[in-house]
Design goal:
The chain has eight helices and 15 strands. It has one domain: Vaccinia Virus protein VP39 (Rossmann fold, 3-Layer(aba) Sandwich). It has an eight-stranded mixed sheet with strand order 5-4-3-11-12-15-13-14, sandwiched between helices. Helix 2 packs across helix 3 and helix 6 runs parallel beside helix 8. Helix 4 links the parallel strand 4 and strand 5. It is 28% helix and 28% strand.
Length: 274
């Protein structure tokens, strides 16, 4: 009972008070890679993340050693690290997250995984054009949140004191990583309801290089948003598939029509160019 009350108080404080929380280094033993160290964020509102062998099995559907992958909305890197392990030191994984609080942990995880992978983290958002944006959260500790051009927006009442930088991904890759473009195999997107805007902004990359896209359909998305999300990929010759979780034997259901996007409230899907 005491521990429950203590955690409850800590969560209440985290929702109302902006403060730094420490990093905890955990170790996960993976069959192929041995002991992998991973930095978790000790924010009371954050669920402890694990580096699971199942993630590797799932992502190997799409990736192999030497590939180029991109994680947009990487958070602290619990999906970035498995992507990087598969791509290996001879491959490359770029990780983008505009939240400066989680980015500190993402940077640490890029450092911790450097022996087995190659992660380059960037504290920016992916947007249509290079610009500055407000970043808001529903809690004061910025456990999660989203960007907007308006200071008052749907992501919450707590706003970072400084605007965050948004960059156009196509322009960024052409300038800094042109030699990797032909090896781009997967783009994972998880941006709290902003995914379809990102897909629209990277449409030329999809048309030219055909990477697999893993995206989240946000629970609060309207039917119109879901239909647009579907059409942005389907119109480019992609086939969409719902999947239950990031596991080797996960349930997979093809999303044949835009109306199928209404079958689940909050879900992930992957899209493959046929």
């Amino acid at each position: 009972m005491f521990n429950y009350l203590k955690r409850s108080i800590q969560r209440k404080i985290a929702r109302r008070v902006t403060k730094e929380y420490p990093i905890r280094i955990d170790t996960f033993n993976l069959k192929e890679y041995g002991a992998i160290q991973f930095a978790n964020w000790e924010n009371p509102l954050t669920v402890k993340k694990e580096i699971d062998q199942q993630y590797l099995h799932f992502f190997r559907r799409f990736l192999q050693e030497g590939d180029f992958s991109i994680d947009i909305g990487a958070n602290i890197g619990h999906m970035t690290v498995p992507l990087s392990l598969i791509c290996g030191n001879n491959g490359l994984t770029l990780a983008f997250d505009p939240n400066p609080y989680v980015f500190k942990i993402l940077e640490k995880n890029a450092e911790l995984s450097s022996k087995s992978g190659n992660i380059k983290p960037f504290n920016v958002a992916i947007t249509d054009q290079d610009d500055e944006f407000y970043y808001n959260s529903s809690d004061a500790s910025f456990n999660n949140g989203g960007i907007s051009r308006d200071q008052i927006n749907r992501h919450g009442k707590y706003s970072l004191s400084k605007k965050i930088q948004g960059i156009n991904l196509e322009k960024f890759l052409d300038q800094h990583f042109p030699e990797w473009l032909l090896k781009m195999r997967l783009i994972k997107i998880d941006t709290e309801g902003y995914d379809k805007e990102i897909i629209r902004s990277i449409s030329k990359l999809l048309d030219k290089y055909h990477p697999v896209v893993i995206s989240e359909c946000f629970g609060k998305s309207t039917p119109e948003d879901r239909f647009e999300h579907f059409e942005l990929l389907k119109s480019r010759g992609y086939s969409l598939f719902y999947f239950r979780d990031f596991k080797e034997d996960t349930e997979i259901v093809e999303i044949n029509t835009k109306e199928d996007m209404l079958k689940w409230k909050h879900f992930d899907f992957y899209a493959i160019k046929e």
